[in-house]
Each structure stands twice: as C-alpha cells, then as structure tokens.
Amino acid sequence: MDDLRRGNRRRRRGSVLLVALIAVMVVAALGSAMLIGGASRDRARDAAVHQTRALYVAEAGMSVALASALSGALLNVGAAGAPVAFGGGEHWVTAVDNGDDTATITAWGRVGGSLRCTQAMLESSGAGIYDYALFAGNSSGDPGYDMRFSGSGAAADDINGNVYSGGNVVIAADAHIDGDVRANGTVSAVASATPAAPSTGVSVPTPDLAAMDYANNHDFNVASMFASATWSSSSMGGSAFQMPESSPAHIFRKNPSDRATDNAGTAKDDYYLEDPYESVNGGASIDVASSTRISLSGINGEPGPSGTGKVYYIDGNLWIHNRNLFSFALDSSAAAPARITLVVKGNIYFSDNVLYRDPARDGVAFVALKDPAHTDSGNIYFGDPTFGTLERMDAFMYAENNFYDNNLSASGSARVTVNGNMTAGNQVRINRDFGGAHSKLTVNYDDRLVSGAVTLPGLPGFQYSGSGWALRSWREIDAHP
Predict the structure, then answer these.
(1) How many domains does the chain have?
(2) Which residues are 183's β-sheet partners?
(3) Residue 263, number of CB atoms within 10 A of its CB
(4) In angstroms, how far is the first alpha carbon of the chain from the final one?
C-alpha cells in the first residue's frame, strides 16, 4: 500500500512539473511574441516617422532653391552622390531651365531608409498670366483659334496692356493694343494696327488649378454654409435662400424666385452676388455713388467674422445680375479694404457692373473652375441677356475654360470696360460684331497683383512671387521614377 501511495505521489509530481513546464513554455512564447510584435511596431513607427521627416527635409531643400530662384538665380543644392546634411537626414536639389520661360526644381529628402521627392514648376515672372491684360491659353490645342480685335472709330477695341494667345491674334480695322502681343501661332494685322514687334511661336503655361485643390483649400464653403439658409423675401428681388447678416456668406442669395428663368437654364444651383441687408440703389450712372453696396462681414462695423482677405468657394454658378439695379460696389474703408477671391465650380455670369469703392486698395478675383460632371462649366459670360446693362467690371478674372459674350451686341451693351485682366485657360471667344455694328471692348490692365500693391488670397500662380521667376505649382512626386 505504501508503495502504491509513493507511486501516486511521484505521478502527481510529474504531472505538476509537466503543467509547469508547459506554462513556462507558453509564457515564454507569449513574451517572445510580444517582443517581436513590439519590435515590429517600433519599426513601423520609425518608418512612418522617417517618411514624414524625409518630406520635411526635401521641402527644406526646395525652400532654399526657391528662395534663390525667386531672386533670379536657379540653384542646385548638393547632388545625389553628395547630398547636404539637414535635420538628421540629407537632401539634394536640381534646378533646370526648360528654355520655354519655365523651370523645374526637384528636391529629394532622405531620412533613414525613407526617400521622398517634391517638384516645383516655375515660370518667368515676366511671362506669367497676370502680366497680361488679355490671356488665352488655348488649352484645347485648337490650331484655328483666333483672338480677334476690331471695330472702327469710337467703337474700336482698345487694349491697354500685353496680350497673349495660345492660338493666333488677329487685329483688324482701328483696334488698338498698347502693349506686347505674343502668340503661339501667328499675329496678323492691318497696317494701321500692327503692334510693335509681335512675338510668335511663344508658349506660356497656364496655372495648375487642380493643384490648388480649392474644394479643400478655402476659407468659406458657401454651398455648405447655405445648408442652414432660410427662404426669405428681399428688396433685392423675389424670395431666395439667404444667410444671417453675421455670416460671411450673407453676400449671396441662392436661386431667387424673380430670376427663375435664369436659374432654370443652368445645371447647378445659382448664387447671386447681392447683399439683402443693404438698400437697393437703382442709379443709372456707372459710379460708386449710384451702386448698391455689398458689405463684407466683420469689417466696417458689420457683424460676424472678417470676410475680407478670404477665399469663398462655391460649388454652383455665380451671377452678378439683378433686375432692380445696374451696379454693385464692395464696401470698404481706409482701415479695411475689400479683398476677396470668389472661386466657382461652374460658370460666372456678369450682367451688371462691379466697381471698386477704393480703386487703389480694393481687389476682387473671380475664378471659374470646370466641373467634370458638366460640359458647360469653367466659363465666364459677359452681358445682360435682355437689357444690356453691363458696361464696367473692376476685377481680376480667370476662366479655366472660356470667356463668352451673352448679348454684347444687338440690343445689348455697346461698350464694355474691364479694369483688371481677362485670363482664359482655353479661349476668349467674345463675338462682338452684329449687323454691321461692333460692341467696343476696353481692357485697362491692372498691375497691382504683379507689383505687390494688392494681394488677393488663393490665386493660382501667386503662392510665391519675386523677380526672375514665379512659382506656378508645387507637388510631391514619386521619389523613384
């Protein structure tokens, strides 16, 4: 019996030892797995940190090269075989003059085993789109495109500034251009209108609007803000969706009922630049005293956050068109000039006048973007379709697609003056001849953007500027092409 009990005790001790051994092995395995997992997480974390730091190091090199380029000199920084140490990593930069008024700067940054690369496209600061009174990039590559100027006597077109066409330039009758004329195609003119030393075979790039990413890079998303709008009547005409006066978006009215016919002719929602909290001034004179005010929020005693120096993004169409008045003027003061950029993913329609209250200090830019879902988008239309009340626009204008006229002849406007510039990514297609008559176009180039006298937010090609070169786009590219 004692032997049996001793055997049982030995078997129990063996079982305990076996269980203990298994437990130790399990714990060891778990510990090893935890160590391996922790090391793996550490490596992943370090790789992510190195990836981020490599981009910063590349951008530091880019900044050095850009600072030099914007002062007039293209500069290489280090080389792939001899990088420059920076911030715990290293970078090198190449700067190449492409020979067509553009340059490419490419910067690599490396930290640990991570390599990242950024690239900037520059253009000659003497050949940027804002150096022109009229610019048509002809992005469609249409070899038959003509930018035309004509008119006789007092009705002759008068362009005071440089002109560029990505197609051809045709100057007829008594049309006058006081500036350089450049074209990718030909320049033809009657003897009395031939410009001094026109340049042909010239290619000037247009801005990379996709890189601006306005859908995410803006101050106010107007369509999103109007999700809380109320349907209200106004002396501006009819009833419309409106925002409170304290909202920066209160300077727009959406789909007003008295312009239902205009709204029905477009594919998207229609926003009208008009302030329902101001009184209607129906004066017929084309001056500020006869204009209806548009008061930006947060300045000059107005409620709400500051509305000046901002980018307003509108997914829809924008109209400057009212049945009760002729002209609008953005309200400003010596302490707070009105400076805004209106970016529209759709079309912009000018039917009424837009004036600066302070021509030396105010500024407004209109940018029309193409919407891939709608063929008719990215255009700027001139002219009142019925009454022909458009005569003057104080503005910088950029249409990613085209400029079109909307009844600038016949019973429409006999003359239109632009104080600013007209820039089209594709074509300026304003047909101003009708029944033997010509609607006169005058463009007075405003150099305040180029000179730096006025800065407007979010303009393509104006992220950086300086003598020599101006930055057109800046993006990350594959570091291992």
Answers:
(1) 2
(2) 165
(3) 18
(4) 85
